[in-house]
Amino acid sequence: MRLDNSRESDNVEDRRASGPRIGGRGTIGIGTIVLALVAMYFGVDPSVVLQMAEGPPMQQEAPASRPPANDPQAIFVSKVLGETEDTWSAIFQKDLNRQYVAPKLVLFRGATPTACGTGQSAMGPFYCPGDSKVYIDLSFFDELQNRFKAPGDFAQAYVIAHEVGHHVQHLLGISDQVDNLRRRNPSQANALSVRMELQADCFAGLWAQRADAARNILEGGDVEEALGAATAIGDDRLQKQSQGYVVPDAFTHGSSAQRVRWFKRGLESGSIKQCDTFSASSL
């Protein structure tokens, strides 16, 4: 990626220095760890896992500060977040006639309080609509490269863009609509989650297309890195690795092929209207 001319976002909170700090009603227990592992391997919606495991939102937060100026990974994340802010601000203004409200991005290690409950590294990056924050332990990028065999800086950027896509869904009221549908039709919860996740993938592709058109951020091989990451974290691939067989009815994020397809749809169309996974007859 070409980020030399990209600005660093001011919306990054660094809680890594304090380490895990849990307060309020939430606790870290065996049940939470098991659920976190389930989330990591099977793609369970992290906000649902957190709420089930921890109960009401926790009030105590670990101290936050700006990332140090000599931390290359933190600088990279800040610049990618800045790119999402500039891109989505333009999309909201031009295409939706609305103002974009940027999310915060929280760097943490181990575990941290969130408005959705206790966030843990084992769950991978996630978005909490309760506080409009994206949470990430940067050690996930090592897992992405080593465990999931999806190296590259744009693979990492895709992960951030996907979580920001969930923030966009929250701003547009899509998340609330889906939550209402889940409550009315519990049997459709997984299918609705898949459509939510694939739309976030499409939004990530849309972001990449618009950001590159505006500021020429993509280099040769970047798209392939993102497609490799989308393939690596498809539900079918993860289920096959963890249990040796695939259960499509248990999908919550979509298959590798679906994730690639919707990322490419956003990338090729550059249109938010083309990311309506909920009206699509097939995914």
Provide an overview of this structure.
- The protein is an alpha/beta fold and 283 residues long.
- The protein has one domain (12-275).
- Helices cover 51% and strands 8% of the residues.
- The protein is built from 10 helices and 6 strands.
- The chain has helices at 30-42, 46-54, 72-95, 139-146, 153-171, 174-184, 189-215, 222-232, 235-243, 256-269; strands at residues 12-14, 104-107, 111-114, 117-120, 126-128, 133-136.
- The strands form 2 sheets. It has a 4-stranded mixed beta sheet with strand order 1-2-6-5, covered by helices on one side. A two-stranded antiparallel ribbon has the order 3-4.
- Helix 3 (72-95) packs across helix 5 (153-171), helix 5 (153-171) packs across helix 8 (222-232) and helix 8 runs antiparallel to helix 10 (256-269).
- The longest helix has 27 residues, at 189-215.
- The two termini are 29 Å apart.
- The model is unreliable at 21-44 and 48-59 (pLDDT under 50).
- This is Neutral zinc metallopeptidase.
- Its main location: membrane.
- It is a single-pass membrane protein.
